[in-house]
């Protein structure tokens, strides 16, 4: 194919309305501990949410995200969320209850005090 014909085909594709695919304006939202494999997303694209190893999707989270919108705006619906499967990972409030604070202080103080027989004396 001659270079002039190829260039004409590209210009025609760009200039013809509807000749280009409507892409999602934004990348999907960044999901902690999850990955996506495509580089461009058309409106109407559905992404499966696959959490990284050691993480799982939360029960209330969606198993997929959908690129929606019109010619002027697009967005991602049904955001998924991943959480750790490690046994020590618990969901706790940011501010502990007063009883929890008191228990934590007592435990921290006990950990700092060593019995005399464990202290190395000169």
UniProtKB/TrEMBL annotation:
Which parts of the sequence belong to the Sushi domain?
Answer: 22-84
Q: What is its main location?
A: membrane
Q: Lineage of the native species?
A: Eukaryota, Metazoa, Chordata, Craniata, Vertebrata
What GO terms describe the biological role, i.e. biological process, of this protein? immune response; regulation of immune system process
Tell whether Transmembrane helix is among the UniProt keywords.
yes
Q: Which domain of life is it from?
A: Eukaryota
Tell me the subunit arrangement.
Answer: Non-covalent dimer of an alpha and a beta subunit. IL2R exists in 3 different forms: a high affinity dimer, an intermediate affinity monomer (beta subunit), and a low affinity monomer (alpha subunit). The high and intermediate affinity forms also associate with a gamma subunit.
Q: Where is the composition biased (Polar residues)?
A: 108-122
According to the UniProt record, which cysteines are disulfide-bonded?
24-67
Intracellular or extracellular location(s) = Membrane
Q: Give the InterPro entries listed for this entry.
A: IL-2_rcpt_alpha, Sushi/SCR/CCP_sf, Sushi_SCR_CCP_dom
Its annotated function is as follows: Receptor for interleukin-2. The receptor is involved in the regulation of immune tolerance by controlling regulatory T cells (TREGs) activity. TREGs suppress the activation and expansion of autoreactive T-cells.
Report the Pfam families cross-referenced here. Sushi (PF00084)
This chain's protein is named: Interleukin-2 receptor subunit alpha
Quote the cellular component terms of the Gene Ontology held in the record. Answer: membrane
Q: How does it sit in the membrane?
A: Single-pass type I membrane protein
GO MF, any single term: interleukin-2 receptor activity
From what organism does this protein derive?
A: Daubentonia madagascariensis (Aye-aye)
Q: Which residues form the signal peptide?
A: 1-21
Per the record's keyword annotation, is Transferase included, yes or no? Answer: no
Ranges for region Disordered: 88-122
Q: Mind listing the UniProt keywords for this protein, alphabetically? A: Disulfide bond, Glycoprotein, Immunity, Membrane, Receptor, Repeat, Signal, Sushi, Transmembrane, Transmembrane helix
């Amino acid at each position: 194919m001659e270079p002039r014909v190829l260039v004409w085909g590209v210009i025609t594709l760009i200039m013809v309305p509807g000749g280009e695919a409507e892409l999602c304006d934004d990348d999907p939202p960044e999901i902690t501990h999850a990955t996506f494999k495509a580089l461009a997303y058309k409106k109407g694209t559905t992404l499966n949410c696959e959490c990284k190893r050691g993480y799982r999707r939360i029960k209330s989270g969606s198993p997929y995200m959908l690129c929606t919108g019109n010619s002027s705006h697009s967005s991602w619906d049904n955001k998924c969320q991943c959480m750790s499967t490690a046994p020590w990972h618990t969901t706790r409030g940011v501010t502990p209850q007063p009883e929890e604070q008191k228990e934590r202080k007592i435990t921290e103080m006990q950990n700092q005090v060593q019995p005399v027989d464990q202290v190395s004396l000169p």
